[in-house]
Write a structure and sequence with these properties.
This protein is of the alpha+beta class and 280 residues long. 37% of the residues lie in helices and 14% in strands. The protein contains 9 helices and 9 strands. It has a 5-stranded antiparallel sheet with strand order 5-6-4-8-7. The protein has a 4-stranded antiparallel sheet with strand order 2-1-3-9. Strand 5 and strand 6 form a beta hairpin.
Amino acid sequence: MSTTPHLLSVALTLAATGVPVLPLRAGKAPFGNCHRCAQNACGGRPNMKSAGPCRCPRVCHAWAAATTDLAVLISPPWSAAWRRAVTVAYHPGAAGLTVVDLDNAAAVAWARETLPATRAVETTRGEHWIYRGAMSSHNAVRPGVDLKSTMAYARWLGPGTGAMTALPDTVRALAAKKPPTARPAPQAIAAPAGAGECRHRTPAYLERGIAMAEHRITGARSAVHATVYRTFLAVLSTHGRCGCLTDAHVTRLFTAAQAKGESLRHCTDAWTNALITLGL
């Protein structure tokens, strides 16, 4: 028997209590953009940072599509998505909640020693600790620990046990300790032995190159992921072998990308992939 009626029943119950929900497909992944919304054509962001002005009725923008509208949840095209769904997810921040996602036994042990007790829900590998109060979401604030609240979704795994308590400063502090940008160490782009003096150290030449890269990223109207990667690749192909790039230059590039909605993880992955492509 299909699990769809059960999933939809759970979703409707949650929505009725004010918790915005959405279906997840196989792999615990959200449903992707439809052709009308692909490549930012709808004005929203396929990175799922914001739904923007998009009014697409489909389940197109992950957490930004989560809804408490019962009529939307049971009507086409959402009803088709529920038939393919494997689980229910919700947007914690919109419900005024923060989920501390503890991904393994070591993370759970750390939480029990460090964080105030609150409602806990078992996961396949660890636990979700749910606090009352919203904050920004952050991944990998420490080994095996993610914070899911605004602009994120979490799987619904049941009501859990224990009384829910207010979001403590100790959880907020985890996000504050997270570096604002991730930069490769300077030696990762050092000049090869015998490369000689770098002509790119001319301040005007280097500044113009970085400024052009920033402009290319901030001016992207679609395919932001691809634009960021291509821009990182272009910068490294010109300046990556001579050692003229500094942490300050890399920070500027990461800042421009994050201003377009790229996550820190996406920035780091794009930079690392560009280094690998160029053999740096």
